[in-house]
Amino acid sequence: MFEHGGKVDFLNVSRNIFKDYYHEMDQPLPIYFPQHRYDDSQESNQEKWRKLFLGSSRDDFTYNKESQTLLFKITTLDENASRYGDDKPSRIYKDALSPKVIVGTADGIDIELNAPLFFLTGLGLIIRLNISQCGKDFF
């Protein structure tokens, strides 16, 4: 079993074959050639929050200019969810959020987010550039 970071790397053999091809041809590996297992969980988590933020109404996220925090009533995500099953939408979104952006705890009705970090690391840089276009005047 090939592992990188404790996760199984199914493409390790294929990557090594292509490394050998490049070596036999005396060609350098392209800059985009993956050296390790690719984990897209951070990108998919950012995309999940980006869609939630952009698809939300202006009142869903409350910005505090003094503390530069966003307050989001995360339990609203569970309002139309099934009462059965283990995964509430709020839990899925909490798990997808980087702990770096959470101010305090994520276990309440509201979740407080460090706004600058949320826009830079939680949603990715793209959201910061598009924030004025979506009608949310935070900065």
Please describe the topology of this protein.
Blueprint: E1 3-4, E2 7-8, H1 12-24, H2 41-55, E3 61-64, E4 69-73, H3 89-96, E5 102-103, E6 110-114, H4 115-122, H5 125-130
Antiparallel strand pairs: 1-2, 3-4, 4-6, 5-6
Can you offer a commentary on this structure?
The protein is α+β, with helices and mostly antiparallel strands and about 140 residues long. It has 5 helices and 6 strands; from the N terminus they run E-E-H-H-E-E-H-E-E-H-H. It has helices at about 10-25, 40-55, 90-95, 115-120, 125-130, and strands at about 5, 5-10, 60-65, 70-75, 100-105, 110-115. A 4-stranded antiparallel sheet has the order 3-4-6-5. Strand 3 (about 60-65) and strand 4 (about 70-75) form a beta hairpin.
